[in-house]
Amino acid sequence: MDEFVDSVVEESSSLGGSSLNSHFSPLLSDKERAKLRHTRVSQNQCKQFVIRRSLLDELFEVDHIRTIYHMFIALLILFILSTLVVDFIDEGRLVLDFDLLVYAFGQFPLVVVTWICMFMSALVVPYVLLHSWAVAYPTSRHRSLLTLLAGGLLLLYQGLGLGFLPTYIVLRNGLPPASRFILILEQVRLMMKVHSFIRENIQRVWSSGRDGSDSSAVPQVTPYLYFLFVLGCLFYAYYVFVRLCIPQFRSLQLFDLRVMVLCVFNSILPGVLVLFLGFFAFLHCWLNAFAEMLRFGDRMFYKDWWNSTSFANYYRTWNVVVHDWLYYYVYRDFLWMSQKRFRAAAMFIVFTVSAVVHEYVLAICFGFFYPVLFCLFMCFGMMFNFILHDRRKGPVWNVIMWTALFLGQGVLICLYSQEWYAQIYCPLQEVSTADDSSLMCEYRTLPNNTSRHTNLI
Question: Rounded to two decimals, what is the model's pTM?
Answer without folding.
Answer: 0.73
